[in-house]
Amino acid sequence: MVEAQGGKILSGVSSKLNYLIVGEDAGSKLEKAKKINTVKILTEDEFINMVQ
User: pTM for this structure?
Assistant: First the structure.
């Protein structure tokens, strides 16, 4: 869905990331994303609403 909207999938969390889509037990990537002010954290439902 991301690529269909022109986005790119990244394997890690860094300042190059715009959005992180998280599930119930997101783990270390969520903690790292919280430390980067430019990363917007979305739930799966928020993401689906955003791309529709």
Answer: 0.83
